[in-house]
Amino acid sequence: MRFVSTAGQAPAVDFATALREGLAPDGGLYLPDALPSYPERFFRELRPDMAAIGTELLRPFHDGIPDHAAAQLIREAFDFDVPLMRLEEDLYVLELFHGPTLAFKDVAARLLARLLGWLCRREDRLLTVLVATSGDTGSAVAQAFHRVPGSRVVVLYPAGRVSSLQEKLFATLTGNVRSLAVDGSFDDCQRLARAALQDTELRARVLLTSANSINVGRLLPQMTYYAHGFAQLPPAAPPVVFAVPSGNFGNLTAGLLVHRMGLPVARFVAGNNVNDAVTRYLENGVFAPRPAVLTISNAMDVGDPSNFARVQALYGGDLGALRRDVLASRHDDTETRHAIRDVYRRTGYLFDPHTAVAYLALRRAFDREPGDRTGVVLATAHPVKFREEIEPLIGRAIPMPERLARFLEQPVCSRPMAADLGALRSFLLAWDS
Ligand SMILES: *Cc1c(COP(=O)(O)O)cnc(C)c1O
To answer: CA–CA separation, 3 vs 7, rounded Å?
Structure first.
């Protein structure tokens, strides 16, 4: 399997190169050049086992990694539950948030970390992952690579500008993880990471990567939970509609890929907050990115979704075909708060703000197109991560999961650093682990 750039100006590459480079040299995003296809029966006969399903679905893609090694990496990565909860007669929630940082990005980041670690070990090289974070990405990436042989992680974060819960989730890690509290803003951290990645002299001495969210190695693993959710539905359930809380649209794109491979899905529904570039595109056919606006579903505050290029490539720019597969709608913070409170009162189930946006989009879609359907809302974060927002809405405290409580007791061991490439270079060159 080769990987081609959505921008069409770069040579096709193998799996290892696509993973290591992340972004194609022409600025495009990698996609597989062909997709295998499976009969509907294949998906109907799956047992709900994330590792087994992932092994099966990813086998055509990981050329260069033997099947038995890949199966082992997948088993290590997908070591937490992804349960399907029944909420109402026709409505389920697929909980993707039982990984180490209580957010769905754990699923893909954990597998990418292990795939990259394996590829580097084979070449007897040590990979250094640089990640700039305003809070959540740093913890997902640091936790994903923590203790993965062949890799180490440097997290750059703005000192004093991330929540203490967020900081605890990465800055308490040691071993192959280091956290640098940068004297500056998140933009300064991003600038530093980018400058280091472009520093050819530094890169000749340290094998650097960013393992960021546009990496195709983070996209493909996400196909697994769609099939896993499907496998947990009753056999006679009406056609399934997946509702996806969307920001950069990686999650939705993975769904479209596995659907293209044969997973029976009646519709995808994308939930946007007021950062609604894709919703507007589906309405009027014009893709008009805007600067991001802050909302309570802040991981979806994306003005110019990067995976839009992949969606366009998959559909060859055919808006009609895309509209047949995807409905989208926008929901503001007031609606989102109302949905969280309303669903909690009626059912006792608590959505985080991102998941609530997808729930609203699903309800809107069912109103627009009545029929016999099964809705599956992808739940992307545990509500406790947004307890400042949610607790006042429901008037009670959200219990802290044990996993998280353990981190809160650990000491933060980041070191301060000036917002300066020289300082980062010296740190990277001096770190021998
Ligand atoms: C990243 C994130 C999203 C958005 O996912 P995309 O793949 O960027 O569309 C939604 N919810 C949560 C909690 C996230 O962290």
So the answer is: 12
DSSP strand E in 159-287: where? 177-183, 207-209, 240-245, 267-272
Which phi-psi region, left, alpha or beta, contains residue 175 (left: φ > 0; alpha: ψ -120 to 50)? left
The pLDDT score that the predictor gives to residue 407 is 87
Measured from the Cα of 250, ligand 1's closest atom is 7
Residue 211: per-residue pLDDT: 79
Give, for ligand 1, the residue of 212, 378, 380, 390 to mutate: max count of ligand atoms closer than 8 Å to Cβ.
Answer: 380
- Mean pLDDT per 10-residue segment, the chain (433 residues): 96 95 90 97 97 98 97 97 95 96 94 95 92 87 94 95 88 96 91 90 91 88 98 96 96 98 98 97 96 92 93 96 98 98 96 98 95 96 93 94 88 96 96 74
**Ligand 1 pocket: which residues have CB below 6 Å?**
103, 105, 136, 245-251, 299-300, 354, 380-381
User: What are all long-range contacts of 364-373, with beta carbons under 8 Å and residues at least 24 apart?
Assistant: 364/269, 364/327, 364/329, 365/241, 365/243, 365/267, 365/269, 365/327, 365/329, 366/90, 366/241, 368/327, 369/267, 369/327, 372/238, 372/239, 373/90, 373/238, 373/239, 373/240, 373/241, 373/266, 373/267
**For ligand 1, mutation pick of 139, 256, 268, 354 (most atoms within 8 Å of CB):** 354
CB 101 within 8 A of CB 109: no
**Domains in the chain, start-ordered, CATH in brackets?**
80-104+219-394 (3.40.50.1100)
Please answer whether residues 84 and 92 qualify as being in contact, where contact means their C-beta atoms are separated by less than 8 angstroms: yes
Question: Ligand 1 pocket: which of 169, 223, 300 to mutate (most atoms <8 Å of CB)?
Answer: 300
What is the rounded distance in angstroms from the CA atom of residue 131 to the CA atom of residue 127? 13
Ramachandran class of 23: left when φ > 0, alpha when ψ lies in -120 to 50, beta otherwise: beta
Q: What is the pLDDT of residue 295?
A: 94
Which atom of ligand 1 is least distant from the CA of 354?
11
